[in-house]
Amino acid sequence: MFSEATPAERRRYYREEWGLSQVPDFILDTLSEREFGFDHTGDGPNDRYNLITTPAQLEGVLISAAPYAAYSSVSFYSRPERRKGWRGAELVFDVDAKDLPLRRCSCVPGEVCEVCLDDARGYIMEVAEVLREDFALKELHFVYSGRGYHLRVLDEAVLEMQSQERAQVLDYVAGGVIPEAELLELRRGYPRVFRQRILRLLSLLNREVMRGSGIAPKRAAALLRPKTLRRVANELEEGSFATLREVLGVGGFACFLELVRRLNAEMLDAKVTVDVKRILRLPSSLHSKVSMKCVYVKDIERFDPFKHAVPRFVRERD
Ligand SMILES: [Zn+2]
Fold first, then answer.
1. How far apart are CA 159 and CA 293, in angstroms?
2. Which of 94, 99, 119, 171 is catalytic?
3. For the chain, is the Cβ count within 10 Å smaller at the N or the C terminus?
């Protein structure tokens, strides 16, 4: 598993396993407004500016070309073949398991495993919850990208957002800004999101990460005691930072908030969210580098990439 697909395996995948029913309606219904891009060699999507107007045409292209990778734009155009007449773009969040700043597994950078893929899944669900609760967004679609997850938002309200506004939403859902001191303990809104992101990080923190943050080693060690971590977590649920402040001291607490902000900002690929002309891996297509399917996820709670995204040819490899 995770080894590159051969050209023969790609052809077999598109001929025998791929089907139009695996392409989500939100793409099938807007084919002619999107730019399509293909990577035929594994060197990146160099074949761009493609117009595909019907499902039958998409089927024909994928089966005959059996591309290394296939992409479609998150943006809608009146003339996608020229990338002209921009009408709006989905709001997209991208978490890649290979780039997680903190992990519970022993993957080296660039690798993924069941553990970090599941952490990525849990994280993208948290992002979706904030978008639902704090932004009242409803049209949320999850896609397993092959090594992580895309969250694609299609509510009318987001489509015409410009990059700067998208960056602000990103900072909000990720916890990429330290709340103002007097608002830190606010029960609702952004400070609550920031505290939830701290809660997620608490179980992943270790001495090594804290060493570079400016927190004195003795104070870091005191925080990492299981009993202290439990108390800190309980207080954060209630909106209080009392033990954190006490254990870390004034300077250490400031360093801690900055560490959290930095780790939060590294969770999502910001370039994907702010780029309003991006192309994104097409759900149903093959991620040939790792031999996994890019899958439209209907039930994110129960999704398991090792059950639902492994192509048949991988199972039948010698
Ligand atoms: Zn891993």
1. 27
2. 94
3. C
**How far is ligand 1, taken at its centre, from the CA of residue 225, in Å?**
25
> Any bridge partners for residue 79, and if so which?
84
99 given a catalytic annotation: no
Catalytic residue among 96, 99, 119, 171: 96
Q: What does the pLDDT read at residue 122?
A: 97
Q: Cα of 109 to ligand 1 centre, how many Å?
A: 9
| Pair of tokens at residue 153 | 């938002």
Q: For position 211, what pLDDT does the model report?
A: 87
Which residue of the set 39, 99, 171, 269 is catalytic?
269
Question: Which residues of the chain register pLDDT less than 50?
Answer: none
Q: How much is the pLDDT for 298? A: 97
Q: Are the C-beta atoms of 308 and 295 separated by less than 8 Å?
A: yes
CA distance 220 to 20: 53
Ligand 1 geometric centre to CA of 106 (Å): 6
Find the 97 Cα to ligand 1 centroid distance in Å: 7
- The verdict on pTM exceeding 0.90 is yes
User: Structural domains in the chain?
Assistant: 1-161+276-318 (3.90.920.10), 181-265 (1.10.8)
Q: Are the beta carbons of 313 and 9 closer than 8 angstroms?
A: yes
**Cα–Cα distance for residue pair 252/260, rounded to 1 Å:** 12
Instruction: Enumerate residues with CB within 5 Å of ligand 1 (an ion).
Output: 105, 107, 113, 115-116
